[in-house]
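User: My advisor asked me to double-check a structure prediction for TetR family transcriptional regulator C-terminal domain-containing protein before group meeting. I don't want to rely on an old file, so could you generate it fresh from this sequence?
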Amino acid sequence: MRAGGGEQGLIDGEKRGRKASRETRRQQLIEATIDSLAKRGYSDTTLADVAVGAGLSRGIVNFHFESKENLLIATLQFLSEEYSDNWQAALEKAGPSVAGRLWALVHADFSRKICTKRKIAAWGAFWGEAKSRPTYQALCGARDVKYRETVIALCTELKAEGGYDYQPEPIALSLCAMLEGLWLRLLMGDGTTREKALEAATAFVAAVFPRHLTPQGPRPDQAPAAQRNRP
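Assistant: Sure, here is a fresh prediction for TetR family transcriptional regulator C-terminal domain-containing protein from the sequence you gave:
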């Protein structure tokens, strides 16, 4: 017999509650894994550590992930998706200006949402294991390719607009390598701060694209070449 409207509503509400609870607990465990990776490193992180950090039982960890490897893969996937979503959202918000989009992309790398000590430390733990774990490389590979292609496309457009004497791909590679290097500085704790790293990154793009950018941001008078050359 089909449940009545009120009864069915209660059943649906309970199902949603259980689903929300599962998602909440999974995220608690992922966040606790990030904390443990930052504190203990990859090898010394255990399911027991994660359970204690999340305030949940070891059984809950086993129920949701079954093994440490599954938990670590889920954590890396979360970090990768968060990073990708962050820079893509920044590009969408920036609007059509190519200079503004590149500026937004650089700033996105130092967003307070993703550029934190604990998350950078967790990334560092995964970087150390990536060479020997093809699963980790495959998990982030497609997103890395999309990011590089986006940077190359922006550099190509800026070259066309500004008449710069460079090849887009080497410049894009230099920019990506510099951003990764600044994250490594933050990971090593050599005194580099998020603010200093962002300042260095914006100084770099302003030096490479002076007709479009200053260290303070996109030039207000910059426009595509076709518009500048109009009589």
